[in-house]
Write a structure and sequence with these properties.
Helices cover about 55% and strands about 5% of the residues. It has about 625 residues and is mainly alpha-helical. It comes from Sodiomyces alkalinus (strain CBS 110278 / VKM F-3762 / F11) (Alkaliphilic filamentous fungus).
Length: about 625
């Protein structure tokens, strides 16, 4: 088979094995579809070995001769402000462009001799990364005319390079306790000042106000707002007709900004990257829009870097399009940018074959890339499934496995991606106790914070393997972590309740999802099927037929479909005050043109219980679900 196809794996659970076979067949179909597209367009076949050969010969060999692999600079407060707020010149922009880790902080009073140069900047990485990062900061100081020179008292411990003060004292290179201010790190993007957090909108995207005056900072904030805003599914359907149309509206607004003559002078590489990161997850359908934005950036003269092309590669990794991966790589080389560690990481992720992984990692070592401290996390993340497979024969628990990984890769190898990969595989193996233990270990031993994706992984395997107790335990863990549920969480919980024929659990999850505006297509489709098959749920008497006089027509015999025949007690998924509206929609004149019953019930919840956005139950969901499951057990 192809190195791009996911292998089929046999698991203790037959359902997990079946899902693995589905994933394998899906990857085969995806590659056949891409090959058909390649044949139609007349493109040459893709060869991962050819791409590996190109990467090997075009990657620069980094060296690590700088003492301690770091260099420390002293800058003025004015330069420090530029490194925090100047769009395109912040430590996050410089670090992304040069692959250099940058830390900046203000020492406590008295730590440095009195002078204008009171902020410490530490550059860490390869010799090349440190050199180019220092050049970028030097360019910032020359534009602001705040030249960085050593204070006279520190002249004996400082070597001056250009306009930068470079203390050579080891004590000045590492921050100690009692810092005068926070440590700003280029690896922590959430620290960037002005970064727009995720938020929810209930109006049209076009109504979001644009800046009164276009500046680089205002334009970036507007683009970030468009890409980070989240519109509830029901709101998107009501305003745009579908979620897809809502996404196209956001893309149209982004394009308007990039093609606006007024905003042209305020465009920045950071804004371009933000827009590209928003588009790439949608896959091939928006690839023309990606190329259009990139062409626009080249036309207006925006400075590009290797990370721009790496963002384009993320979309190829998502759809496993190796041919276009090579096309983007060639375009990257034509723009005179060389592949870096992140490019190799993306290439590793697009390949599914373990033997190919070993060969790629071997070439990375020959390119001297594995000396980078970040490479350890890249390799460990890619090989964690192989390491887990080796430990399956003599499984001693999560703590012993993590200790072996620390011995193999060193401490600090764990990433959020590696954690999710481990959770996914442990869930497929049915080791749910190990899943919860892994979360506890990660929270207590690392700075990684589990998120809603982490919860949904566990809920998905609990649904597949019909384990409601696991879902309750996971909800309890994440309630303590303060992680709210999203649409996918409710969909998985509702699917679990339906598969187990638990009417009380179905009613509980459905009502909470309606009140929180987190109903999905899968949920209302299932509810519509229930009410279509069992219309007597709307009658006072749970009899065989509805009163035809109330609906204006004769009703058909109410024989539930086999999917609901096994229910010990059919669920009630509506409130008494909704009966008349539902009967009119199901049996009245609007029955052919009105929405399905599931959609109608969700709309009526929003009508009768308005203003419940951000609503949370007083009793935690794990407690309510446990009580509902206990009540369902009494019905059996």
């Amino acid at each position: 088979g192809s190195v791009l196809e996911r292998p089929a794996v046999t698991y203790p659970s037959k359902r997990e094995t079946m899902h693995s076979q589905y994933r394998h067949l899906g990857s085969q179909y995806r590659q056949k579809r891409l090959d058909s597209y390649r044949t139609i367009t007349g493109s040459p076949p893709s060869d991962w070995r050819k791409i590996l050969h190109t990467l090997k010969h075009e990657t620069g060999r980094p060296t690590w001769k700088t003492p301690s692999h770091s260099k420390t600079l002293l800058v003025t407060d004015e330069v420090a402000d530029k490194l925090l707020y100047d769009v395109g010149r912040t430590i996050w922009d410089v670090g992304e462009k040069t692959e250099c880790h940058i830390a900046m902080w203000k020492p406590p009073a008295g730590a440095l001799a009195p002078s204008r140069y009171s902020t410490v900047v530490v550059l860490s990485g390869s010799d090349r990364a440190i050199h180019f990062a220092g050049a970028e900061i030097a360019a910032t100081t020359s534009r602001t005319e705040s030249y960085v020179v050593p204070p006279p008292e520190a002249a004996a411990h400082t070597s001056v390079s250009g306009s930068l003060a470079v203390p050579s004292s080891p004590a000045a290179e590492q921050p100690s306790g009692g810092l005068g201010g926070p440590i700003w790190s280029s690896d922590k993007t959430f620290q960037r000042p002005g970064r727009v957090p995720h938020f929810t909108i209930y109006d049209r995207y076009e109504d979001y106000p644009q800046p009164r005056q276009w500046t680089p900072r205002a334009l970036l904030a507007y683009i970030e707002a468009l890409t980070r805003v989240k519109m509830p599914r029901d709101t998107a359907v009501a305003l745009y007709g579908s979620v897809w149309n809502a996404e196209k509206a956001v893309l149209r607004l982004i394009k308007d900004v990039f093609y606006s003559e007024e905003a042209q002078s305020s465009l920045s590489t950071r804004a371009l990257k933000t827009a590209l990161r928003f588009i790439q997850p949608f896959g091939m359908i928006y690839r023309p829009s990606t190329r259009e934005l990139l062409k626009r950036a080249e036309d207006v003269g925006l400075p590009l870097d290797a990370e721009v092309f790496n963002i384009l590669q993320e979309g190829n990794v998502k759809v496993r399009d190796l041919r276009n991966f090579g096309v983007v790589l060639d375009r990257m080389l034509a723009a005179r940018f060389h592949p870096n560690l992140r490019t190799w990481d993306l290439f590793l992720r697009i390949i599914e074959d373990t033997a190919a992984h070993q060969q790629i990692i071997g070439e990375m070592e020959r390119c001297n890339l594995l000396n980078d401290p970040r490479a350890t996390r890249v390799v460990a993340t890619q090989l964690v499934l192989r390491d887990l497979a080796r430990a399956r024969g003599d499984w001693k628990g999560v703590r012993a496995f993590l200790a072996d990984q620390d011995t193999r890769y060193g401490r600090g190898w764990m990433t959020k991606t590696a954690m999710h990969t481990l959770l996914n595989e442990l869930g497929r193996l049915g080791k749910f106790a190990s899943c919860l233990e892994l979360i506890d270990e990660v929270v207590s031993q690392t700075a990684i914070k589990p998120n809603i994706t982490t919860l949904n992984i566990i809920l998905n395997h609990a649904r597949v393997q019909r384990e409601p107790a696991v879902a309750v335990a996971a909800l309890y863990r994440f309630h303590k972590l303060g992680v709210p549920l999203d649409e996918s969480s409710y969909t998985r919980l509702f699917g679990l309740a339906v598969q187990l024929r638990k009417p009380n659990a179905m009613g509980l999850i459905w009502r909470l999802a309606c009140l929180e505006h987190k109903v999905t297509w899968h949920m209302w489709k299932r509810v519509s099927d229930i009410y279509t098959s069992c219309p007597f749920l709307l009658s006072d008497e749970q009899g065989p037929t509805l009163d035809s006089s109330r609906g204006g027509g004769a009703s058909e015999p109410n024989r539930p479909r086999m999917a609901y025949h096994a229910l010990h007690a059919l669920p009630t998924l509506h409130e008494p005050c909704m009966v008349s509206d539902l009967l009119e929609g199901m049996l009245g004149e609007k029955r052919s043109s009105g929405p399905p019953p599931g959609v109608r019930i969700a709309q009526l919840y929003r009508k009768y219980f308005p203003g419940q956005r951000g609503w949370r139950p007083v009793t935690p969901l794990h407690t309510l679900l446990a009580e509902a499951l206990e009540a369902d057990h009494a019905l059996e």
